[in-house]
Write a structure and sequence with these properties.
Enzyme class: ligase
Protein name: Pantoate--beta-alanine ligase
Keywords: ATP-binding, Ligase, Nucleotide-binding, Pantothenate biosynthesis
Helix content: 25-40%
Number of strands: 14
GO molecular function: ATP binding; pantoate-beta-alanine ligase activity
Largest sheet: 6 strands, parallel
Catalytic activity: (R)-pantoate + beta-alanine + ATP = (R)-pantothenate + AMP + diphosphate + H(+)
CATH superfamily of the largest domain: HUPs
Number of domains: 2
CATH architecture of the largest domain: 3-Layer(aba) Sandwich
Shape: globular
Structural class: alpha/beta
Strand content: 15-25%
Distance between the termini: 49 Å
Number of helices: 11
Length: 384
């Protein structure tokens, strides 16, 4: 038996008059039998609340429920709700959770242009939580003045359709002004207001090429977690350094949200799914799949060895796969890292038995063969 949406807003135990089509709240306990006066009252209530014809009234049952003990799954879904202000999200969260402590909220922050990788995060979030909140916000503070903020792909209509298919409860789609009330110019020297910097794991790899990238990421995620206040937030392994930075942030700032990292989603060629893949033609996407081929070859090499594998041996193996594309101008390697998965400190050697302690990551600029002036920066990694 499903509950009417109105039941969701009630906090105290109420008596309900039920039919096959749903509940009808009443202010007193009505019996289907009894005195003439009570029967007349029943007729008025049945007419007022448009219950089924008399032939179906025999199906009516009377029940009482302690609503404050109910979980999210007991209520009809209201469909996707779209909020654009912090106040709207706060009001929704207050009404959704109330004093029911068993309600869980899962959160998937995104920049839109959703693909199967995002869908996998949302599906896991849906399976594990009572409510699912997704944000779409292209965060200006993580883009440098020379980067592609204006060109970043935006597919809001398609994104909303996908969120509806995945039974998402709330889409939070704020404006830049909502997230940064003092404005957010791309030049750091012109920015005003609070920002979050996580020292020690932000400066290397992505941080060496994009110095203020993780400052912007940590800041916007802190804001989003404070707004949504989720129990769990989901991130993809493709951005593994981002996850490491954010995990340090939530632990050391005592943010009461658990972060979960989900495996990378890949296409049939092994290429990691990314919103930036849209910038490349089909021929260049085939070339880009060699990024994963190089990482996979290194993984196979390490697993086949029974002794310690030197760093240079691993880099040589990857280089053997990538060299033809470097020579042709299709690849320009930004970095290759073989590092500890917690500290991101580079390793000189790998021990085969150290499962889950090392990550091989990379960033590669891939030239679009249809538009040679366009280079797309793609990242990928494998956890050993």
């Amino acid at each position: 038996m499903q509950f009417h949406a109105l039941a969701h807003e009630l906090r105290a135990p109420k008596h309900y008059l039920y039919s096959a089509t749903g509940p009808t709240p009443t202010s007193a306990f009505f019996s289907l039998f009894g005195s003439w006066k009570m029967r007349q009252t029943n007729k008025k209530m049945l007419k007022k609340h448009r219950l089924p014809p008399s032939r179906n009234r025999s199906k009516l049952v009377i029940a009482s429920f302690e609503l404050r003990r109910c979980t999210r799954s007991q209520f009809d879904r209201m469909g996707l709700q779209i909020f654009r202000t912090v106040q709207e999200v706060t009001q929704w969260r207050t009404g959704a959770v109330g004093d029911r402590r068993k309600i869980s909220i899962g959160f998937v922050p995104t920049m839109g242009c959703l693909h199967a990788g995002h869908a996998s995060l949302i599906k896991q979030c849906r399976e594990s939580n009572d409510y699912v909140v997704v944000s779409i916000f292209v965060n200006p503070s993580q883009f440098a003045p020379t980067e592609d903020l204006d060109k970043y792909p935006r597919t809001l209509a398609n994104d909303i359709d996908l969120l509806k298919e995945l039974n998402v409860d709330v889409l939070f789609q704020p404006s830049p002004h909502e997230m940064y009330p003092q404005g957010i110019p791309l030049h750091v020297s012109e920015q005003r207001g609070p920002f979050v910097t996580v020292l020690g794991v932000s400066e290397m790899l992505e941080g060496s090429t994009r110095p203020n990238f993780f400052r912007g990421v940590a800041t916007v995620v802190t804001k989003l977690l404070n707004i949504v206040m989720p129990d769990v937030a989901y991130f993809g392994q493709k951005d593994i350094q981002q996850f490491i930075v954010l995990n340090v942030m939530v632990q050391e700032l005592f943010v009461n949200t658990k972060l979960v990292m989900m495996p990378i989603c890949r296409d049939s060629s092994g290429l990691a799914l990314s919103s930036r893949n849209k910038y490349l033609c089909q021929d260049s996407l085939k070339v880009a799949s060699s990024i994963y081929a190089g990482l996979s070859a290194a993984t196979t090499l390490i697993k086949e060895q029974e002794c310690v594998v030197e760093r240079e041996t691993i880099l040589t193996k990857i280089g053997h796969i990538w060299e033809p594309y470097v020579q042709s101008g299709d690849f320009e390697i930004d970095y290759i890292s073989i590092a500890d998965i917690k500290s991101l400190a580079e390793k000189r050697e790998i021990k085969p038995q150290e499962d889950g302690l090392t990550v091989i990551s990379c960033a590669v600029y891939v030239r679009d063969r249809k538009h040679p002036e366009t280079q797309v920066r793609l990242i990928d990694n494998i956890i050993l």
